[in-house]
Each structure stands twice: as C-alpha cells, then as structure tokens.
Amino acid sequence: MTGTTVVHLLRHGEVHNPGGVLYGRLPGYRLSDAGEQMAVRAADWFAGRDVVHLVSSPLERAQQTARPLAKAFGLEVATDERIIEAGNAFEGLVVGGGGGVFRAPRNWWRLRNPFQPSWGEPYVEIAARMIAAVEAARDAARGHEAVLVSHQLPIWTTRLHVEGRRFVHDPRRRECSLASVTSLTYDGDRFVGVSYAEPAGPTDPDAVPGA
C-alpha cells in the first residue's frame, strides 16, 4: 500500500502534582490549569492538518489533552492501553531533590541494570507495544494523519527505536517536552522520517522524568 501517512505522538500537558511525586500510572493525576492551556495550544498547532484518527492513553491526563483535538476535528477519542505510561517501581515516590528515592541505599538494588531498566518496564517491551499501536493508527489513517496522546518515556522510547538508537539514556536529555509532538512519517508501510515540535514551548530538563 502506498501513500504518505503521518502518526503524531502527542505528549500530555502539565499535571497538577504539588507533592512532586513520580505518579506513573496512578489514578487521580489530572492536568493543571497550565496543562489545560497546553492542550489547547497543541490542538491549535494541528489546525489545518489532515487528522482523521485520534487515540489516547487511558490515563486521565492524556484523555484531557485529547479533548481539544477531538472538538477541533469532530473526532471520537479511541483509547489504547498500549500507549499508557511506562511501569515504574518508584511510582508514587519523590524521585528528585534531597529526599529522593535514589539517596536511600535500600533502593539501590533497583538501579542495578540501566540497560533494561531494572527499576521499571523494559525498554524493549515499551517499544514493542508502542510500535504496535503506531502501526494500527497508521493503518486506520492511511493517506492521512493520526494523533496518539501518550507519555514522555513511551514516546521517547519509540523515537529511539525508529531511529535505531540505543535505549539507555539520560532522562534529562529526552527531546519530549510537555504537549510536544513527535511525528512519524510513513510511505506506505515504510518508515521514512521523524520530526519534532513544541507547541507549548520547552520543558525544564530537571522536571520529574515521565511527569
């Protein structure tokens, strides 16, 4: 099958998180007021594009980020468990700062293998489920564009995979700001390139990874 299809991976907006925890897949974490504005700015960025298919992670912050897009394009929001946030053993704990989990010796054993990583869902499994979801969206939007609203680590892992780069990385160097768009372009089934945009501007590199 031929024709150009673009699958956009949209990261959700800023989350209300006064405790500064790594919230992961925990329920109850919704967009902040600023995050809701980020979602609107992301939807504005897509104005005039040929978006015909919209999918979101089941988590509330992603669903909220998808709503302005759904309204703008008159689309239903499908939900796909495959694009959910990565599993993490430190979920619900404070990661950064003086009281972060990395300072406690009892947690060091979880850091034994950064290549897997040993503290959470393996990168290869994240990449596999994300690519499956991307290809499903590509097939649903043949010749047009699709948007998948997901999370930082799954999106970044997908980019590393399609670009043939190693999965192990410094979380502070991920090019995946809040409400950013990582776009994968296909010619038929063949991946041909990736582009990146920040409709809501850059995110502080010291922000909690995955937040």
UniProtKB/TrEMBL annotation:
<dbReference type="InterPro" id="IPR013078">
    <property type="entry name" value="His_Pase_superF_clade-1"/>
</dbReference>
<dbReference type="InterPro" id="IPR029033">
    <property type="entry name" value="His_PPase_superfam"/>
</dbReference>
<dbReference type="Pfam" id="PF00300">
    <property type="entry name" value="His_Phos_1"/>
</dbReference>
<keyword id="KW-0413">Isomerase</keyword>
<protein>
    <submittedName>
        <fullName>Phosphoglycerate mutase</fullName>
        <ecNumber>5.4.2.1</ecNumber>
    </submittedName>
</protein>
<dbReference type="GO" id="GO:0016853">
    <property type="term" value="F:isomerase activity"/>
</dbReference>
<dbReference type="GO" id="GO:0016791">
    <property type="term" value="F:phosphatase activity"/>
</dbReference>
<dbReference type="InterPro" id="IPR050275">
    <property type="entry name" value="PGM_Phosphatase"/>
</dbReference>
<dbReference type="GO" id="GO:0005737">
    <property type="term" value="C:cytoplasm"/>
</dbReference>
